Amino acid sequence: MTKVQDLSNAHISVRGAVQGVGFRPFVYQLAARHNLRGWVCNTSGDVKIEAEGEPKDIEAFQKDLRKLAPPMAHIEDITVTAGKPANYGSFEIRPSIPEKGKYQLISPDIATCPQCLHEIFDPFDRRYYYPFTNCTNCGPRFTIIEDIPYDRANTTMKNFEMCPECRAEYEDPGNRRFHAQPNACPVCGPQLELMDGSGCPISCDEPILEASKLLKKGIILAVKGLGGFLLACDAANETAIKNLRERKHRPAKPFAVIVASLIDARKHCEISDEEAKLLSSPASPIVLVKWKTESTINKTVAPGLKYLGIMLPYTPLHHLLIRTFGRQLIMTSGNISEEPIVKDNDEALKRLGGIADYFLLHNRDIYARYDDSVMLVEAGKPRFARRARGFAPYPVKLSFQSKQILGCGAEEKNTFCLARDNYAFISQHIGDMENAETLEHYVNTLELYKKLFKIKPEIIACDMHPEYLPTKYAKELAEKEKLKLIPVQHHHAHIASCMAENCLTDKVIGVALDGTGYGTDGKIWGGEFLVADFKGFERAAHLEYLPLPGGAQAIKKPYRTTAGYLAALGIPVSNDLPLTHYLPEGELEIIQEQVKKSINAPLTSSLGRLFDAAAALIGVRGVIDYEAQAAIDLETCAADAPDESKDYPFTIIEENGISIIKVRDMITDIIKDINDKISKEAVAARFHNTIARLITEVCRDISNKTGLKKIALSGGVFQNRILFRKSARMLEEAGFEVYTHHQVPCNDGGISLGQVTIAHFNER
Ligand code: ZN
Ligand code: ZN
Ligand code: FE
Predict the structure, then answer these.
(1) What 3-state class would DSSP assign to 397?
(2) Nearest ligand to the C-alpha of residue 515?
(3) Which ligand is in closest contact with the Cα of 183?
(4) How confident is the model over 642-664, as a mean pLDDT?
(5) Which DSSP category does 108 fall into?
């Protein structure tokens, strides 16, 4: 027995993502190891511990809290205050205490852990083949939470009463399933059900086996996953893929493929160590990797592309289905073109009825819609194309204490962002805000985040584009709740988001290159060099303004952009240009007339459009089926001429203190190369070289004027691997410090983060 004078007592508060990740049983076991007594409990704001014992033991315990924390715990902060000894007889786990106004970080959903995986393939385990197996180290989290604290009663598992065996695991602090809120087994947990396309149940003992037999016949299966329905079909069956494309109204956009294991993945793709690590990480995202030509995955999965989006199974259901099926499956979001992912059973039968032949359903409700995350590795580091499953709602940490602010985001690839304290809670990918369904998803998700993180925005930030749906929503909300509304320029937001995630606060040279963003002059910006900080920006340089004949029509038909640019620059269209193949009879004359008279030909400085124009000029793509397709094809084409070192000229002129980049010389030289029968691949590569040099030269010029050395690269154009790699390297060689995105996408998915930070520094 410890003598009273040696007894010490410590009140410990642990903050971070420490609930639903096995933290309390860890504390319980750690306390036993260090001979401590007292208690641990979850509150709405932290995990509280009172530990009593010998001072040296308490000290060792505190050290181990951080050092030995469970894999999915993310400790932000530990505070300790001395308490009065209360002579506890044991260490216990106390019931959760909800506290008004307090909040906690919430863990994202986590891919099946190795132990659970072992169990589902062990014929002697009671969870053999059970598709809802999970433990405190893995399984659903964010998608099932209705409110905090994270207890079973506050999740969609509340309707499942645990059987005695599950209950015993749940209550045993020494068990891996101690307080695993979604804990379940075949006796007491959720069950699968197979239905046909009209919603009639198909009676069978083994729905997974039955579903996989059907998949072999080439059917399309809707599978209820973690954060919504996925559409699956045999990735080797061209007819099935064709059907899926037709029914989903998705003629060419690439699909993601799920493979059974890393070994399987390596048969089809080249995978670096970093990519392997990312694929098998707890977040288990889709990773874009180099596709081998000998792969048996059908080429129509990602027509014409060198990179394929693949993922490993991340739930027991995925593992079981893919192993039973025996080869690779397409797994794509269960939705119709641009609508949000379907999450409820009734909704699925109604909305996906025209796409899926069969449904593999279950009776565990999904509370939050959650798409798969999409990532890529460039220069050895992961980058996001889409941030959702496995990451949201984990926040980006800010370098300052933020007011409570809502950033409503951009229109495409929308996310919103809610900030408080030093956290920016960026929502999971919401989608393109083009229809009522997506707006509803947006509003519901916003309400959930406000509730979970106890945020009541004092300020609302939005894009300057008057026609963006999130901007209209922001205006209405600000009016209704009498809140201050701060419109933020699109490219300034891009740069601020890059600054925020890199904890930069001083002025930088911001290179914001994308397709479309509303400028302060009402024109369409997108090839922008800004001198910026959170407080404001100056437009230091931009691509020259050129006309988009027909506006949105030109975006869908890049040949129109090319023809418009040529007309504006006074470059004739000779008959031997590949461009003429795209132009229907008489359209060239109409476009030229449109440009001459400025009829429905809005002006843009967009670099994304210059990529489009180059793609159609070279004859790579004249009409697109999905966003950025022409630029992607141009990049793919350039990849086949990797050793090309030539580039094209351009000129920079000064106009009212702003540098304007003129592209006439570039375009005439491209045409010269085409006439000289230089290969498409070489011309595409030379074009990429040109843009990388252009970025470097303009930055050098701005740096000479301002003395700035830090460069922030942002905007969707930087999803282009070749351009990103080349320009980052050239800038570094020129002596610049280059910053880019690793926590949020460089595309419009990162805009909301930038809006929030700018609003914080501009609220007066
Ligand atoms: Zn597990
Ligand atoms: Zn059970
Ligand atoms: Fe953008």
Answers:
(1) strand
(2) 3
(3) 2
(4) 96
(5) P
Q: Return the pLDDT at 59.
A: 94
pLDDT of residue 4: 47
C-alpha pair distances (Å), 372 with each of 230, 454, 600: 10, 26, 38
Dihedral sign, CA of 682, 687, 688, 690? positive
CA of 364 to the centre of ligand 2 (A): 14
Cα 391 to averaged position of ligand 2 atoms, centre (Å): 29
**What's the 190 CA to ligand 2 centre distance in angstroms?**
10
Question: Pairing between strand 307-311 and 256-258?
Answer: parallel
Q: Is the bond into 393 cis (omega within 30 degrees of 0)?
A: yes
pLDDT at residue 5 in the model: 53
pLDDT of residue 709: 98
Q: Which ligand is nearest to the CA of 119?
A: 1
CA nearest to 430, candidates 448, 447, 449, 411: 411
The number of the ligand nearest the C-alpha atom of 189 reads: 2
| 523 CA to centre of ligand 3 in angstroms | 14
How many Å lie between the centroid of ligand 1 and the Cα of residue 439? 35
d(CA 745, CA 753): 10
CB of 560 closer than 8 Å to CB of 554: yes
Residue 25 alpha carbon to ligand 2 centre in Å: 20
The tens digit of pLDDT for each residue in 163-195 reads 999 999 999 988 889 889 999 999 999 999 999
**Distance between CA atoms of residues 38 and 48, nearest Å:** 11
Cα-to-centroid distance, 164 and ligand 2 (Å): 7
> What does the alpha-carbon distance between residue 633 and residue 625 come to, in Å, rounded to a whole number?
12
Residue-range domains of the chain with CATH: 4-93 (3.30.70.100), 192-362 (3.90.870.40), 395-503+748-761 (3.30.420.360)
Rounded to the nearest angstrom, the distance between the alpha carbon of 189 and the centre of ligand 2 is 6
pLDDT attached to residue 265: 98
Query: What would the two tokens of residue 444 be?
Result: 């519901």
* Ligand found nearest the CA of 137: 1
The answer to whether the beta carbons of residues 742 and 718 sit under 8 Å apart is no
Which spans in 570-628 are helix H? 579-582, 587-597, 607-618
Query: For residues 335 and 441, what is the distance between their CA atoms, to the nearest angstrom?
Result: 13
In percent, the amount of the chain with pLDDT more than 70 equals 99
Average pLDDT over residues 58-67: 94
Cβ-Cβ contacts under 8 Å for 683 (sequence gap 6 or more):
618, 670, 673, 674
Mean pLDDT (the chain) is: 95
d(CA 180, ligand 1 centre) in Å: 9
